[in-house]
């Protein structure tokens, strides 16, 4: 991996780690998806390793399904990063999980999916003029992800459904969030961040995108889970 001089990050990171991992169940069982073992370490370890590299000091883990597995491994501090747990007693959806976890931060936060690794400098998606900033990844010949379209100001103007694409931009699952976002819109307790925030409020909120052609992997399917074992060596 590249060597980039990092400044200390005072902005905390929220990691969504409550997924069931249904598509991985044939190869990984009895642990949450972010705890899928990669060369003797859980996938989440590699995310924390990168956060340590970026001098992140505080993280909130949004957990639910088999949360004890995560808590026992990571405890209250891992690799020098202080950890708090936002516990879902019932599934809240991606949006509900983020909103619940934001109760543990003062103002703003980076938000990461616990089953993807996108090798970017988090400080580069921090945009004080946006309600949400999203790291986008160019991809070629794919059908697993929906695509995202930007205007000339980098504002996101469209989220498109999954279909086969020769090339396009995908949501890389890394966000910069203003906590005040949820003062602007109404939501239920359980809701989808993608459907009920990003798509529903596309015109009401300032949602910006930034493109990074950096290493990206999503371990949500067995093929990419196996690829991660090779890549992370």
Give the quaternary arrangement of the chains.
single chain
Overall geometry comes to: globular
Count every helix, treating DSSP H or I runs of 4 or more residues as helices: 6
Derived structural class: alpha/beta
Strand content: 25-35%
What is the CATH superfamily? Spore Coat Polysaccharide Biosynthesis Protein SpsA, Chain A
The tally of strands reads 14
Textual characterization of the structure:
The chain is globular, with a radius of gyration of 17 Å. It contains six helices and 14 strands. By secondary structure, it is of the alpha/beta class. Helix 3 crosses helix 5. The N terminus is likely disordered. It has one domain: Spore Coat Polysaccharide Biosynthesis Protein SpsA, Chain A (Alpha-Beta Complex).
Describe this protein with a few key phrases.
14 strands, 8-stranded mixed beta sheet, alpha/beta, 233 residues, two-stranded antiparallel ribbon, disordered N terminus, Spore Coat Polysaccharide Biosynthesis Protein SpsA, Chain A
Write the layout of secondary structure elements.
Layout: E1 13-16, E2 37-38, E3 41-42, H1 43-53, E4 58-63, H2 67-74, E5 77-78, E6 81-87, H3 93-101, E7 108-113, E8 116-118, E9 132-142, E10 148-150, E11 156-159, E12 165-178, H4 181-184, H5 193-199, E13 207-211, E14 216-218, H6 222-231
Parallel strand pairs: 1-4, 1-7, 4-6, 9-13
Antiparallel strand pairs: 2-3, 5-6, 7-12, 8-14, 9-12, 10-11
Brief summary of the model shown:
With 233 residues, the chain is an alpha/beta fold. The protein has helices at 43-53, 67-74, 93-101, 181-184, 193-199, 222-231; strands at residues 13-16, 37-38, 41-42, 58-63, 77-78, 81-87, 108-113, 116-118, 132-142, 148-150, 156-159, 165-178, 207-211, 216-218.
């Amino acid at each position: 991996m590249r060597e980039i001089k990092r400044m200390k990050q005072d902005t905390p990171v929220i990691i969504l780690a409550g997924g069931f991992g249904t598509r991985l169940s044939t190869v990984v069982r009895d642990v949450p998806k972010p705890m899928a073992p990669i060369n003797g370490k859980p996938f989440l370890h590699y995310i924390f390793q990168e956060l340590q590299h970026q001098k992140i000091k505080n993280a909130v883990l949004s957990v639910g399904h088999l949360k004890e597995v995560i808590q026992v491994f990571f405890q209250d501090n891992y690799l020098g990063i202080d950890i708090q747990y936002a516990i879902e007693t019932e599934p809240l959806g991606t949006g509900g999980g983020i909103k619940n976890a934001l109760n543990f931060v003062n103002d703003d936060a980076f938000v990461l999916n616990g089953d993807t690794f996108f090798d970017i400098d988090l400080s580069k998606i921090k945009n004080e003029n946006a309600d949400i900033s999203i790291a986008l990844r160019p991809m070629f010949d794919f059908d697993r992800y929906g695509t995202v379209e930007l205007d000339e100001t980098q504002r996101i103007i469209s989220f498109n459904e999954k279909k086969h694409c020769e090339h396009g931009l995908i949501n890389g699952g890394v966000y910069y969030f203003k906590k005040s976002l949820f003062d602007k819109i109404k939501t239920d307790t359980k809701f989808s961040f993608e459907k009920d925030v990003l798509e529903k409020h596309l015109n009401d909120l300032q949602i910006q995108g930034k493109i990074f052609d950096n290493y990206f992997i999503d371990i949500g399917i067995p093929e990419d889970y196996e690829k991660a074992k090779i890549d992370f060596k």
